[in-house]
Amino acid sequence: MKKTKVLISVITFLVFLSSMSFANGLNLNGIGPRAVAMGGAFVGLADDFSAVFWNPAGLAHIKQKYVAFYGFDIIPSMTYNLETPIPGVGADAKAVTKHYLGGLAGYFQPVSDNLVLGLAVYSPSGLGIEWDGADLAGISGPPGSPNPNIEWMSKIFVITIAPTLAYQVSDQIMLGFALNINYGSFEMARYAGYEAVLNPYFPVYSPDPYLYFDFEQQTIDMKGWGFGATFGILVKPSDMFSLGLTLRTPSKIGFSGDIGISKLSVLEPFVGTTIAATSGAEADVTWPLWIAGGIAFTPIEQFTLTFDVQWTQWSKLDEVAITLSDQTWGLILEEEDTKLAFRWKDKAQIRFGAEYRLSPKFALRAGYYNDPGPAPDETRNILLPITDFTVIAGGFGYNINGIVIDLAVEYLMGKEKTVPFGKTLPPSLGGDPDYQDAMPGVYHVKNILVFEFAIGYKW
Fold first, then answer.
1. To the nearest 5 percent, what fractions of the chain are helix, strand and coil?
2. What is the reported pLDDT for 199?
3. pLDDT value at residue 232
4. Which residue, among 206, 244, 250, 238, has the nearest Cα to 18 in the 3D structure?
5. DSSP-derived secondary structure letter, 232
6. What is the average pLDDT across 59-69?
7. In terms of residue numbers, what domain contains 363?
8. What Cα–Cα distance (Å) separates residue 366 from each residue in 36, 253, 309, 402, 413?
9. What is the pLDDT of residues 108-151, one digit of tens each?
10. Burial of 42 from C-beta contacts in 10 A (0-12 / 13-18 / 19+)
């Protein structure tokens, strides 16, 4: 017996993997408080430790031993509302306030007048969301059977280990390379869904035309490794101008772990065998190609303006499949049911930044950009705090006796998104075939607040 409701729940985690971050699809919108405070328009400047992310060629600026530590705290705010014509089926929820932490530790050392080597460990991706199960009780069970005890959450992070090198070819040209060794971890819990079948006792012995098989809680725990690289070039035709170009290759992370559905055993009478509550699973998820170009303009010594165009090839994330190790689970799910179409679109960001140095020790920064979300409404889900954002940022830096301190605050204002309930109904009931993987409702990522801090030492 094939159970479509189950399959949607089982493979939903792939949506989360491909959309987990607080913006820019999979990726964080920036690394390093100086760069973030300048709106992430840093590819053409890239003259501090965060160049390992933005443009590794910029590490050639480093002329002393340099150790840096950086941390961020992401605080999302999201609401979800669903109204349906079905009595008792709906939701009015606000996400639980959570803190999602990440950061960087790096060491960089010149080994000659032209060559700088380094090693950085940082978090390019990381976020999650958590909901109060009581707020979602109306969608956590079959019609008429709300369940406030279902846990709804997602949490994901990626850690990149990046050996780097930068070489200054001449006074005008710098080249850089970083090997990206990526470790990913994903945890998720949500309602597993139900299956409705015609009730043979209706209407004589039962008033309900359907019998419901409730699968209750679903959990996922997946981890994996992948590899990629970042290439950069920085050109300084004069003291006033600096031009940068960066290419980050795709990185395929092979995830493996367990998927659990607490009450999948209700299907045992239909398959004639025992069904385990968990199954091993594997899936490959690709972090996409990223190409960015930037320019830094310093009209006077104290003032720098930056401008970036950053493009991500999200269209490569079209379909992802998982492989289940449990053969009985394979009897329940058809092969095409373990594939998910994302239909994501390539997206570009245009970013602006500015820095004004009040003195050799103290600098003020500000930035602005728009961040269009790559995911269409056809794949929208409650555990994805992703939408179109307008972003403002600011911060300051202070350095004295080789100690460098930077702080930044980033504020993302999200656009409301709506997935009509009628479109998600089965096509046989008038629904839209393109919306069968979507979760209906009104999504509003009201804002995301990000605090960033870094301290470095040069000697």
1. 15, 55, 30
2. 67
3. 97
4. 250
5. E
6. 93
7. 4-458
8. 9, 35, 17, 24, 16
9. 999 999 999 999 999 887 667 899 999 999 999 888 889 999 99
10. buried
Distance CA 447, CA 389 (A): 9
Residue 446, domain CATH: 2.40.160.60
Question: pLDDT digit string (tens) for 8-28?
Answer: 333 343 333 333 344 454 456
Q: Which residue has the tokens 């600096």?
A: 242
Q: Which residues contact 192 (CB under 8 A, 6 or more apart)?
A: 6, 9, 215, 216, 217, 218, 261, 262, 263, 264
pLDDT score at 21: 40
Residue range 32-42, pLDDT digits in tens:
999 999 999 99
C-alpha to C-alpha distance for 275 and 260, rounded to whole angstroms: 11
Could you give the angle at the alpha carbon of 129 between the alpha carbons of 150 and 73, nearest 5°?
A: 145
Its sign, for the CA torsion 134, 139, 141, 143, is positive
Contact yes or no for 164/119 (Cβ under 8 A): yes
- Number of domains into which the chain is organized: 1
Rounded to whole angstroms, how far apart are CA atoms 420 and 440?
6
Q: Which amino acid is at 228?
A: G
b or e along 48-87 (b: 16 or more beta carbons within 10 Å of the residue's beta carbon)?
bbbbbbbbbbbbbbbeeebbbebbbebebbbbbebebeee
Evaluate whether 133 touches 89 at the Cβ level (below 8 Å).
no
Backbone angles phi, psi at 58, to 5 degrees: -65, -15
Could you report the per-residue pLDDT of 183-197, keeping only the tens digit for each?
A: 988 888 999 888 877
Q: Which structure tokens are listed for 72?
A: 């961020």
Helix (H, G, I), strand (E, B) or coil at 425: coil
- pLDDT at res. 341: 66
* The model's pTM: 0.85
